[in-house]
Amino acid sequence: MLEFEPPQFQGHAHHLTKETYEEMYKESIASPETFFDKMGKNLLHWHQPFTKVKAGGFHQGDVNWFHDGQLNVSYNCVDRHAIATPNKVAIIYEADEPGRAQKITYAELLRKVCQFANTLKKYHVKKGDRVAIYLPNIPEAAVAMLACARIGAIHSVIFAGFSSDAVRDRILDAECAVVITADQGMRGGKVTHLKKIVDAAIEQCPCVKTCIVFQRTGDKSVPFTPERDVWWHEVVDNQRPVCPPEMMKSEDPLFMLYTSGSTGKPKGVVHTQAGYLLGATMTCKYVFDMHPNDVHGCMADVGWITGHTYIVYGPLSNGVATVIFESVPTYPTPSRYWDLVDTHKVTQFYTAPTAIRALRRLGDKHLEGYKLDSIRVLGSVGEPINPEAWLWYHEVVGRKRCMIVDTYWQTETGSIVVTPIPGVTTTKPGSATKPFFGVELGVLDSQTGQELVGNDVEGVLVIKSPFPSIARTVYDNHKRYMDTYLKPYPGFYFAGDGVKRDKDGYYWIQGRVDDVINVSGHRMSTAEVESALILHPLCGEAAVVGVPDDISGEAIVCFCSVKSGYSDITELQQSLRAQVRQNIGPFATPKRVIIVPDLPKTRSGKIMRRILRKVAAKDVTLEDAKTDAGIREKLGDISTLADQSIVKILIETAAKQ
Ligand code: ATP
Ligand code: MG
């Protein structure tokens, strides 16, 4: 088993050492009140200090933190730095077009946030109102979010790749009166018609009274409804750049955000003010080992929780510079990330396994000539990272000198919950390692719900007690919150993922509980089989599902997208099967290997295995694939899929092979 000691940098002291970490972790579990009292007071600015730290719990679904305290999140993320270090860069905007980066200082950000907050007030937005944000990954998205936070409005950011139906459903669910969008978006050199999509959605949303439109491309043909639409530049620039922050109670909602929808209908998860901000601030400080002059490069989109916490709230609360990257890793070439890192001297780089695998597949030549020596921490999030991809990240991107943090968390957890810590944790490729401060994990037997104590166990991952940034409810549907997370195993938060705790107490996320495969009594995680496939020199990406089988109960079917350069498909399939057999064991030998051009992924880049399961089991046929309605009937909600046309291709490919 490969292990890596945490690197030490010359002239750079980490926030934590092995000793301080141990002591702090112990205190965070044994006396959370004392621990989080200190954290809350040291890391956040309070307008009304709290006296109570923690109350409620998972049994009743009434978790609350810092209950009687009051603060403002935008004050914490902007004002306090605009006062102390006004000329420091807050946001580096790396536009879709290379070479057009812009920098915004904390003082400038404060002006922008105040002007936009006053704009929202002008259109009658009040504390507690919901505001929909459907913007590209541009600074204005962060400005809009922080402006909502400033006046106590609840933002609901909708990723600007969603269709009008998905936008409509989310606007209606939250009853938003104001929608913020752009004329068009630019991503990878391609135009997206955001305003047109929003218009189609709003037509079916009587609740919407105002649509604020940012001019991103300035295209003249963009539709505009004068009685409802206003141009950002016309109204915002006209507002007073001062807006006193609203005092918010710790447990007032800060935002709602829909989950990625990998497993079904997305949930409108609600986060509150203080607990969420503390989670974001603490994890940035300790997991990314953030220091005042850092440039934090989180490559996510603000439309996802990763963007909320690690582009906007966490880095800004810590007063560092944060990168907002509008483009894609392969535009205009697969060197884009590395160009960005060297140009802006990025110190922490954070992306998803799907991007890491794609870049690995495209070859190391795209990294040649780049220094990448500013990076100290390389992060991964979103899916289990296969050891092979981890090693590539470590060796080719990190040049064996960076700390790799495989961070496990969810929309619902608000901030990272399982992760290595720079300066502290010995890493093992493929393992998210150990829980963060305040997070106590449990492994349960999936059948009996009994807790499995000790090491070397495998089962369902649960969180045993509340920590500050855990979601408090599902918007307007507390029952769904209880049913999904707290009722399955009473007293615990059920994460929905399978996990293995190895002999050293390290955690290995095994993928969704729903995706676990059982072949003749051998329980296998999708992550394990997929990692074996990726070891094959031609395999770029793999997804594995179980299908019903008369003899073994379930059989393994693999979907692989491969690098070019094979001649015989049957031979390739055979060698991929052999790869799994050799790596895991004969019992894991796949029944079928299907070579596909691409995998079905959510817009946040996660593999949607439930679709593949139905394709593999022939629950959806060529006949169904003829119409969208046929596909929808068999597969359910696939609106969160990045490219819906892949479904038909998969069904056809599977039928042929
Ligand atoms: P939905 O809940 O709607 O099905 P989703 O779970 O994909 O969507 P997110 O909250 O974006 O929505 O994703 C959280 C999930 O992503 C986790 O539950 C886990 O399955 C996976 N995940 C995130 N980070 C990691 C990681 N480092 N290792 C393994 N899995 C991860
Ligand atoms: Mg989920």
Structural overview:
The protein contains 19 helices and 30 strands. By secondary structure, it is an alpha/beta fold. It has two domains: 12-495, Rossmann fold (3-Layer(aba) Sandwich); 516-656, ANL, C-terminal domain (GMP Synthetase, Chain A, domain 3). The strands form eight sheets. Strands 12-11-8-6-7-14-15-23 form an eight-stranded mixed sheet, with helices on both faces. The longest helix is centred in the N-terminal third of the chain and has 17 residues, at 106-122. The two termini are 36 Å apart. The structure holds adenosine-5'-triphosphate (ATP) and magnesium ion (MG). Adenosine-5'-triphosphate (ATP) binds next to strand 24 and strand 25. Adenosine-5'-triphosphate binds next to strand 24 and strand 25.
Features:
657 residues, alpha/beta, Rossmann fold, GMP Synthetase, Chain A, domain 3, 2 domains, 19 helices, globular, binds magnesium ion, AMP binding
List bound small molecules: adenosine-5'-triphosphate, magnesium ion
Based on secondary structure, the structural category is alpha/beta
Under the CATH scheme, the architecture of the largest domain is: 3-Layer(aba) Sandwich
Proportion of β residues? Answer: 15-25%
Radius of gyration computed on alpha carbons: 24 Å
Report the top-level CATH class of the largest domain. Answer: Alpha Beta
Oligomer category: single chain
Arrangement of strands in the largest sheet:
12-11-8-6-7-14-15-23
User: How many domain modules?
Assistant: 2
Output the CATH homologous superfamily of the largest domain.
ANL, N-terminal domain
Low-confidence stretches: none
Mean of all residue-level pLDDT scores? 95
Compute the number of strand runs: 30
Describe the global form: globular
